[in-house]
Design brief:
This protein is mainly α. It is built from six helices and eight strands.
């Protein structure tokens, strides 16, 4: 139903127009308009948006697909600029410094990099973007995965920016990690 696909693109464009801070290159968590937003860059909310973009792109073609490619590239370029250069992850609340209450967070990192790897695998992003996702995947494996325990999964974000409890093996992190792993496997098998 192309009318529904047009509506989806329109709604995603609203997010891009109203929740994006061009000076930071990041998307706000929660906004009513471009001038009324939370002022917070919560990692998992950005990851959800990135994953939504690539998942709907499976059903897009023509102008709609091109519009989604533009939005995705804008998001990914902003995230790449603030990625931890050592192990590729992002802070849960990107407004604040790293601390025990604001660690490099697993679920949002996995969601964002799932989107990047899926886009690379489908030719929606240039292959050079795979490096950022693979760096983050290895970072999660080396820093947040111990045996069968996946750590530092934020339970919920708060628009004001205060952090919440972090869990091990919580579904909001495990699911995206598996999704990311599947895309990494697809990419490495093509090589």
């Amino acid at each position: 139903d192309t009318e529904e696909l047009d509506l989806i693109v329109d709604r995603m464009q609203w997010v891009s127009d109203n929740m994006y801070n061009s000076s930071k290159g990041l998307f706000y968590h929660a906004a009513d308009s471009a001038s009324s937003n939370s002022g917070t860059y919560w990692l998992r909310s950005i990851g959800w948006y990135a994953a939504a973009i690539v998942d709907i792109m499976d059903s897009m073609e023509g102008d709609n697909l091109e519009a989604m490619k533009v939005q995705l590239k804008k998001l990914v370029d902003g995230m790449k600029a603030c990625q931890n250069s050592s192990y590729g992850m992002w802070l849960n609340n990107m407004n604040a410094s790293q601390s025990s209450s604001n660690p490099y967070e697993t679920s949002g990192t996995a969601l964002t990099c799932y989107a990047v790897m899926k886009a690379v695998n489908n030719g929606w992003l240039d292959e050079s973007y795979a490096d950022m996702a693979i760096l983050a995947f290895k970072g999660i494996c080396n820093e947040k995965l111990s045996g069968t325990t996946l750590t530092d999964i934020c339970f919920k974000g708060v628009p004001g920016g205060s952090n919440s409890t972090y869990y091990n093996n919580e579904g909001k992190g495990v699911g995206p990690f598996i999704m990311l792993y599947a895309e990494v496997l697809e990419y490495t098998q093509k090589e």
